[in-house]
Amino acid sequence: MNRKERLQNTLAGKPVDRPAVCFYELNGLDQDPDDQREFNIFSHPSWKPAIDLAREKSDRIVLLNLPILTGKPDFDFYGELASVEKWSSGVSQFQKTVVRGRNRTFTQLTRQDLDVFTIWELEHLLKDVEDLKEWLNIPLNPYNNEIDTQPMLSAEEKLGDSGIVGVDTGDPLLFAAQLFDMATFTTIATFEPELFRQTLEKFFYWLMPQVEMVAKAFPGKMWRIFGPEYATPPYLNPKWFNDYVVRFNVAIVEAIHSTGGTARIHCHGKIKKVLDGILATGCDGLDPIEPPPQGDVELAYVREQYGKHLVLFGNLEASDLENLSQDNFRKKVQRALAEGTRGSGRGFVLMPSSIPYGRVLSITALKNFEVMIEEIEKM
Q: Which of 17, 234, 280, 298 would suit a FRET pair with 245, their CA atoms being 20 to 30 Å apart?
């Protein structure tokens, strides 16, 4: 069984020769060690052995961001109402976005550092309830472009039999929560539920045509939907999960299913009290099922209670990948494999909750990636 077939069978709940093993974002296609642009951390020589290992040994999953549209590499919410300024200073590059409302002007500021593979939000677009009320009057810019099939076709050609290509999208909660800093988000979502529902509905009606368009253009793909973790403890009381997540994600999952695709919910953190809600979305898979203390539920419990319906992805903590000795990390891998495949279930993919995001990959992390492959090949 080749790696592509293994992943396809896993998603379909069919028998496999062994569990799949995925390095999550590290797939050996998105990371180019030969790209010498200064903000590409993967050009550092320490990353090459891990990239090669992902290419040669892991069951590769490459996720392309929605929308996959001609000339639109990222979400463009505001069209001509927004202006963007970019500049570099020292070891950082910045982006300032200004959005003009009827009565207010909103500003967002982000920073990316030379040696860190992430984007920091220094200033969120909306600051308070009054900002939100004004923002609700701003029309979101619809996408009318044709879908560009080339990125998907190119990625599939490069992967060959070594993995699969899917689609990555946030849900309405993701987009709504990221309008604010965390304190403001949790306050508004808790004490201004009607305003927050209006915000979610606005993003939902903007997002759904794109989901439907891409699902039809790329039938049968695996999708990853991220954002539900914003409605889990300690951010929000789980009582909001149905209203803020299930209500909208059911329709997203149905659109994906309508063209033969599968939907995987991405939800970090403490998920035990929202597992029924996750299942209620109709999704086919769940990641990363973080073990305690980062999470609040053991993989064995999720497998026993929900494994019949869900493909489980996990449950290795990224901090363990980076910090544990090989012997101790091996024990974590062995436990995850035992719990993730115990009894009957739809399927299991061994996977970390994230990958390191520093320019220099430590020897410890590299050796622990190797441990994952060593243990999976014993099965």
A: 298
Sign of the alpha-carbon torsion through 178, 181, 182, 185: negative
Same domain, 41 and 83: no
DSSP annotation of 274 reads G
- pLDDT, tens digit, for every residue of 28-69? 999 999 999 889 999 999 999 999 999 999 999 999 987 665
How would residue 144 be classed by pLDDT, with cut points 50, 70 and 90?
A: low
In angstroms, rounded to a whole number, what is the distance separating the alpha carbons of residues 246 and 257?
16
CA distance 139 to 269: 33
Confidence category of residue 73, pLDDT binned at 50, 70, 90:
very low
Q: Is the pTM of this model over 0.85?
A: yes
* Residue 81 burial by Cβ neighbours in a 10 Å radius (0-12, 13-18, 19+): middle
Q: Are 331 and 262 within one domain?
A: yes
* Same domain flag for 229 and 247: yes
H-helix or E-strand containing 376? helix 363-377
pLDDT at 370 over 90: yes
Residue-by-residue DSSP string for 207-260: HHHHHHHHHHHSTT-EEEEE-GGGGSTTTS-GGGHIIIIIHHHHHHHHHHHTTT
Question: Coil, strand or helix: which one is 74?
Answer: coil
Interacting residues of 298 by C-beta distance below 8 A, sequence separation 6+? 291, 292, 339
Q: Do 121 and 165 lie in a common domain?
A: no
For 256-269, what is each residue's pLDDT tens digit?
999 999 999 999 99
Token match 């035992």: residue? 338
Are 94 and 30 in a shared domain?
no
How is residue 134 written in tokens? Answer: 């004004």
Examine the domain organization and report whether 18 and 69 are in the same domain: yes
Residue 22's closest CA among 52, 59, 53, 51?
59
Does one domain contain both 304 and 285? yes
> Rg for the chain (alpha carbons), in Å?
21
CATH number at residue 151: 3.20.20.210
Query: Whole domain around residue 118: which residue ranges?
Result: 78-128
The last residue of a domain, from among 65, 94, 128: 128
In a domain, residue 113? The reply is: yes
SS3 content of the chain, % helix, strand, coil (to 5): 45, 20, 35
